[in-house]
Structures are given as C-alpha cells and as structure tokens.
Amino acid sequence: MSMMDKLKQMLKGHEHQGSKGVDKGGDMIDERTRGKYSGQVDTGQDRLKEQFGGDQPGQGQDKPPQP
Predict the structure, then answer these.
(1) N or C, which terminus of the chain has less Cβ within 10 Å?
(2) 3-state percent helix, strand, coil for the chain, nearest multiple of 5
(3) CA 66, CA 46: separation in Å to the nearest integer?
C-alpha cells in the first residue's frame, strides 16, 4: 500500500480538514521561502486537494451529508 493510499484512508470522512491542512502547509512554505516558490506551492496544493477530495462539493463541514 502506497503512502498516498494510507493518507486517503486516514482522511476518509474528513476531507475538509485535510484540505485545510494542505492550505496551512502551503502557507507555511510560502512564508519561509518569502513567496519565492508560491506558484509551485499553489500547484502542489491544488493537486493534493484533488487527490484527497477536499474540494469536492458537498464535502466538509459547510454542508450537511446527503442521505
């Protein structure tokens, strides 16, 4: 089982929080590099969010789960 599979399994049902973590991590990298790699960091954040499913409509705390 790959590391990405393990992370996806751990985040199942908590995609919104995973997305928030990706945002915080990217912001910290931008802060430490003084924005030098902000384009690459943003791309990486978007790809991780796609992998984890954190940006899908209906996921997270903003909307209640569908029956």
Answers:
(1) C
(2) 65, 0, 35
(3) 25
Q: Greater confidence, 22 or 32?
A: 32
DSSP string of 21-61, one letter each residue: HHHHHHHHHHHHTTTTTHHHHHHHHHHHHHHHTTTSTT-SS
**What was the pLDDT predicted at 48?**
85
pLDDT at 63 over 60: no
Output the six-digit token pair for 22.
């990706």
Residue for token pair 């049902």: 13
Q: Quote the CA–CA distance of 41 and 27 in Å, as a whole number.
A: 9
